[in-house]
Amino acid sequence: MTQQRPMTTTDAPGGPVRETIHATTIAIGSRAILLRGPSGAGKSDLALRCLALPAGRFNADPVELIADDYTVVSAVDGVLWASAPPALGGKLEVRGLGIVDLPAITAAAVALVCDLVPPHDVVRMPEDGLTVTLCNVAIPSIRLHAFEASAPLKLFIALSCQGNDT
Asked: Please, are residues 10 and 41 in contact by the beta-carbon 8 Å criterion?
């Protein structure tokens, strides 16, 4: 699937309150993680590896799929929600196998955005408090290389550092 400019579906003063973005989204408990990056960055692969891990030390709840490749984000009362576009719900692209059907949840509040980047673009000691703004809602963000073996655990640790306020 090719990357396209986000498609705004609803605008409000100050920007869109609902848009479709190029991201794969997983949830742990009630909190979603948006995995953003260009085609081939490892969004689906990282999601698949997270889905395969049982609840454990770094993730108290099992990981669930919300959306693969494209995610609808919408702001409701200052909370950013993620859901799958209707045609993509419950589907995950597994490189080498094609599109597979998997159990998925319908939506969760976004607690973290992870931008997937090449290894040389991952900062060893990033600044605290980095955020991105989607639909006028600031969300904590990190940058990881999707294909590192530890990437799923780094996601879980970053999410746990965000607390439970979403």
From this structure: no
Residues 74-110, buried b or exposed e (16+ Cβ, 10 A)? bbeeeebbbbbeeebbbbbbeeeeeeeeeebbebbbb
The answer to whether residues 46 and 146 touch, using CB atoms and an 8 Å cutoff, is yes
41-69: pLDDT as tens digits? 999 999 999 999 988 887 889 999 999 99
Distance CA 25, CA 57 (A): 21
Spatial distance between the Cα atoms of 135 and 145, rounded to a whole number of angstroms: 25
Tokens read off for 68: 């693969």
- Say what the pTM is: 0.88
> CB–CB of 165/159 below 8 Å?
no
The DSSP code sequence of 102-128 is --B-SEEEEEEEEEE--GGGS-SSPPT
CA distance 1 to 75: 26
